[in-house]
Design brief:
It is a single chain. The mean pLDDT is 97. The protein starts with a strand and ends with a helix. With 328 residues, the chain is mainly alpha-helical. The chain has a three-stranded parallel beta sheet. Strands 4-5 form a two-stranded parallel ribbon. Helix 4 runs parallel beside helix 13, helix 9 packs antiparallel against helix 12 and helix 10 packs across helix 12. The structure holds adenosine monophosphate (AMP) and tryptophan (TRP). Tryptophan (TRP) binds next to strand 1 and helix 7.
Length: 328
């Protein structure tokens, strides 16, 4: 029997942090056992805010290495760069013609990003439509993402339904998969906002490539809550609750066990142990990344092969959609 299809994506930016890893990427890695997985490096999405060409090229390659270092297995899964598959832009155009403006105006990520730019371009506004095309082209069953992508997945579902109703069954209706405990990891310096690579300070996040001393330093200065107990309470203790969720995800122990272990101990003991746990998990990943950095050609070959496989399935869906619409 055919395995269910998983597709997800990440924009190529300089940093990938433990929020991306715990919320999204570790799900993709784990689901390679049960799903047919495609992971897309979303460079068409990246250019919705201005990018320096040399940096974009370098970041795209770095992201490919990082994803492989995280455990995306290119022999099993499809790892590709979005701009290498022209069908994404083509289907996005078609979907744009059936997306109500009001639905895009409601997108909270658009409003956030717009407020942080001096100029806003149409691409940023249409970004969720491109994301819908990414998903629908592969007849995707499962889209594992962090919570910030929930609204975008809802749009992909509603566009698929709208198209199917008007032109007949064409697209599978995808399901978003968002983890309850790690779908929204909060910033270390501000536990009320999500961890984000565009945060003002690098103390907001732990990057997957941060060196051990950097990880110790960032966790040591991470904001804590009033009181002294290491206890899970999202309302009263958002900072400690976030650290507990991170500890639990990296160690595999339930939050309640970790609370028990640190009953009567100080925040600082808890933080020291958390830092060592994160370091232990990220050290092999950093080593694999370094190995891959020595061999640019093999990473390029993986991306070339990935694009060829992705193109084959994407084009099939695109042709069907074009025929249904009435293109000659
Ligand atoms: P991005 O870096 O924005 O391209 O996001 C890549 C993936 O990581 C997406 O699925 C996001 O939803 C997810 N993600 C980003 N930030 C966080 C966070 N703070 N907590 C959990 N998941 C996140
Ligand atoms: N918009 C997603 C993000 O910022 C990245 C992305 C692009 C994506 N296309 C996708 C995720 C398709 C899932 C499916 O994180």
């Amino acid at each position: 029997m055919q395995k269910p299809i998983l597709l997800s994506g990440v924009a190529p930016s300089g940093v990938m942090h433990i929020g991306n890893y715990l919320g999204a990427i570790s799900q993709w890695v784990a689901m390679q056992e049960t799903h047919s997985v495609s992971v897309m490096i979303a460079d068409l999405h990246a250019i919705t805010v201005p990018q320096e060409p040399a940096a974009l090229r370098e970041n795209t390659l770095r992201m490919a290495r990082l994803l492989i270092a995280c455990g995306i297995n290119p022999e099993q899964s499809i790892l590709f760069v979005q701009s290498h598959v022209p069908a994404h832009a083509e289907l996005a155009w078609i979907l744009n013609t059936m997306t109500p403006l009001g639905e895009l105006e409601r997108m909270t990520q658009f409003k956030d990003k717009r407020d942080r730019q001096s100029d806003t371009y149409a691409g940023l506004f249409n970004y969720p439509v491109l994301m819908a095309a990414d998903i629908l082209l592969y007849q995707t069953d499962a889209v594992p993402v962090g919570e910030d992508q929930k609204q975008h997945i809802e749009l992909a579902r509603s566009l698929a339904k709208r198209f199917n109703n008007r032109f007949g069954e064409t697209f599978k209706i995808p399901e978003g998969i968002i983890l309850k405990d790690t779908g929204r990891i909060m910033g270390l310096d501000d536990p009320i906002k999500k961890m984000s690579k565009s945060a003002a300070s690098a103390n907001n996040y732990i990057a997957l490539l941060d060196e051990p001393d950097e990880i110790r330093r960032k966790i040591k200065i991470a904001v804590t809550d009033s009181g002294a107990d290491v206890a899970y309470d999202e309302e009263q203790k958002p900072a400690i609750s976030n650290l507990l969720r991170i500890f639990s995800a990296f160690s595999g122990s339930p939050v309640a066990d970790i609370e028990n272990r640190y009953r009567g101990k100080t925040y600082s003991t808890f933080k020291d142990d958390l830092a060592e746990c994160v370091i232990e998990k990220l050290t092999p990943l950093r080593a694999r990344y370094r190995e891959l950095s020595a061999d640019k050609e093999s990473v390029l070959a993986i991306l070339r092969a990935g694009a060829a496989r992705a193109r084959a399935s994407a084009e099939k869906t695109l042709r069907t959609a074009q025929e249904k619409i009435g293109f000659l």
